[in-house]
Amino acid sequence: MPWLNGTRSQQSLSLNTVCFFAVSHSQITRLYSRFTSLDKGENGTLSREDFQRIPELAINPLGDRIINAFFPEGEDQVNFRGFMRTLAHFRPIEDNEKNKDPTASEPLNSRTNKLLFAFQLYDLDRDDKISRDELLQVLRMMVGVNISDEQLGSIADRTIQEADQNGDNSISFNEFIKVGNLQHIYVWAGDHYLILT
């Protein structure tokens, strides 16, 4: 199962190359199978169009935001390693990962990294803060026409007011972490919520 540099013939899959989060060999094999089934161009990478063919993302109001999370800024293709890195945010935090060596880097599925992933879904212009307009845009994506603009504005204003600690009328990542200090982090998946933690 070669995959690393976007080609299937250059390097073989090893557990060492995906050590950024704990998965079994069978899980890697299943994910690789899913990756190759999505790779319609058969070039070892996925495009945005490949992701848009996934029915669950196509109906998800945040589907485009989730798809964008797979692509670093300026990139239009993702290889298997990038695919795995993004999916790592959705893995549950296991007890042995919580008690990891404090000097080691934080796993991608840590609470902080899950919060950063969720924060980036709201930070549409990638300026490291969530403005009222960005919050309104994401809320509109999630609820459609089920709530009036006035109600959405009220929700956005209240959210900014409660989270904004430095008075800049936006939510920074540090402010988001404090607000996100909840039992679970949820991401809307079209007809239900996914629990990130």
Q: What would your notes on this structure say?
A:
The chain is mostly helical and 197 residues long. It contains ten helices and four strands, in the order αααααααβααβαββ. The strands form two sheets. Strands 1-2 form a two-stranded antiparallel ribbon. It has a two-stranded antiparallel sheet with strand order 3-4. β3 (186-188) and β4 (193-195) form a beta hairpin. α8 (132-143) crosses α9.
Largest sheet: 2 strands, antiparallel
Range of strand content: 5-15%
Termini, distance in Å?
Answer: 30 Å
Shape designation: globular
Describe the protein's topology.
Elements: H1 25-38, H2 48-52, H3 55-59, H4 63-69, H5 80-87, H6 95-98, H7 111-122, E1 129-131, H8 132-143, H9 149-163, E2 170-172, H10 173-179, E3 186-188, E4 193-195
Antiparallel strand pairs: 1-2, 3-4
Helix pairs in contact: 8-9
Organism: Oncorhynchus mykiss (Rainbow trout)
Protein name: Calcineurin like EF-hand protein 1
Keywords: Calcium, Cell membrane, Cytoplasm, Lipoprotein, Membrane, Metal-binding, Myristate, Nucleus, Phosphoprotein, Protein transport, Repeat, Transport
